[in-house]
Specification:
Blueprint: E1 8-9, E2 26-29, E3 35-38, E4 42-49, E5 52-57, E6 60-61, E7 63-73, E8 76-85, E9 91-99, E10 110-114, E11 118-119
GO molecular function, one term: metal ion binding
Domain Yippee: 25-120
Protein name: Protein yippee-like
Length: 120
Amino acid sequence: MPSRRALIHASTDPTEVVSIFHDQPCYYCLKCSTPLALQDELVSKSFSGREGAAYLMHSVINVKIGKSEGRQLLTGYHTVADIYCIGCGTTVGWTYLKAHELSQKYKEAKGNISLRRKGL
């Protein structure tokens, strides 16, 4: 199982899938079926993404991290970076790099993946 301390298992080669789990339930990219997260890494189903419902994950896999930017979200201002599927390049959500409000610090170093971008 991936470490809960490490958010991203990413590759410098955007075409390289670095983690595949044949024997564990995963969430997958809807476009190319690349595994994005193990179901055991689920923190909460009560999150929102740009296009609606999203899941907060302890860690995500097979993604590339975009540039850091400040974003005003429903729960306050956060520093985030979009995450992209390394199989197809689709934006699948974002990672929380910094929460600026104390009550939101639990999100730091976690990934938010959109339900419209992943399979169940």
